[in-house]
Please model this.
Amino acid sequence: MAIEGELSKPLLFGLAAAEPDWDAVYAEQLPRVFNFFRYRLANDAVAEDLTSRTFEKAWAARSRYRRDVAAFSTWLLSIARNVATDHLRAQRPHLPLEAAEEVPAKDTPHDEVARDSDLARLGVLLKQLPQREQELVALKYGAEATNRAIAELTGLSESNVGTILHRVVQTLRRDW
Amino acid sequence: MDDRFLRDLKRQPNPDFAARLRATLHTLPANVVRIAPVADLKRWFAVAASIAVVGFVFTLPAVQAGAQAFLDLFRVAQFTGVRFDAERLRNLESSGLNLQTMFGDVEALTTPQEPVSYATAAEAGAAAGVRVRTPAWVPPGYSSTGFVVSSEHAARITASTAGLQALLDALALDDVELPEGLDGQDATVRLPPIVNQTYANGDRMLHVIQSRSPDVSFPAGLDLSKLAYAGLRILGTPQDEAYRMSVTIDWRTTMIVPVPTQAAAYRPINVAGNEGLLIEGFAAGEQRGHSLLMWSAGGQTFAVTGPINGVELLEVAQTLQ
Model:
């Protein structure tokens, strides 16, 4: 049975020919990815390192996405999420992430020193939340992703994303 | 909701860092993603390999694209889509070329058996040797109609340089160089049983497909990058893009999925922490809005396909348990 397309071939060819301006894409996406990692890990140096890793991975594979530029930011954030997961896993070599979600975080001496900055203060508060909530905050406020994009990235429904974020923000505001 | 305290914490990246990274990216070669050595190809665990699953889903009417002959050579672990004009190859076939035999001789190592229907996931799982994962959610109106298990298949493919070269000549692909020593090499493909659970909503069918990862044995030292380049060019990928992909992708774990040119969109998508491939916007017969989502996890390959959108497919995929 032949497949019947909904888009005309000329339109598809047009999409295929559209080559993104990678410098512009970089300028637009860099702050989003960088702040995703800052909110996720509350550490500027680590955020720079992981941002570099994310862009290097994306840059190497960029040819795969020339036809689907609209989804580029979502794709980039999916890479960033994986990079963050790898980093967090490396930090907890003896504890699977799933288990880590259930373990309340404890302050370290580093945490106490870092309280001086608002970002570090946020990091300490976020550590008391499950991994999923931490990630939603980083995607929403660091990467400025829409609830729809977050839903697409995480597999949650859009309304569920909104509900969880509302609850998390209330919690954070209370403890801020 | 007052969330200004959260929004105010953002800051721009350090300009020096931004400039350094930009400069680094521009100096990176296309193959910054390392290609694993090809020496140890005795067992090409197409991790996700989807050989079985992808081979199967592409036989479904919804996704049938006449690409079956190529799937035998481009099977996966992870998935990467490339545009593929099935009509172009059909035209070749109508001109007298037999695509099924141009890659080499295929010798079946198992006797094909009819698929067997089962009423429960447990029965199907016992037959297939897997724990069948069923979705906790399917779109409203869909209900389970049962499970079908296809038997294990194995085949030995003996490559024919002459056949491949004839195909390249027919397509006027003079930029393609076949790997040295390819002629006469054997590849053995073993496809574990595939479980296909179906959900029906009237005449609309949703399929959830699962298989253990196939096992493909290749001769050590085979230049997979060259072979991949040839395959990409045969599929119609432009020369520069085919080259970039051939040298950046780990061909031991990544499968090229030929995406019909008529499909509206394809993109990578995260499925419970695993990178999958979502193809949306194609029609099958009278039914429009078909989508296909493929991913692999835990040594198994999964696919969900049906006349629903990508968000719903992802929802189904995320709830497999």
Summary: The two ends of chain A are 60 Å apart (CA to CA).
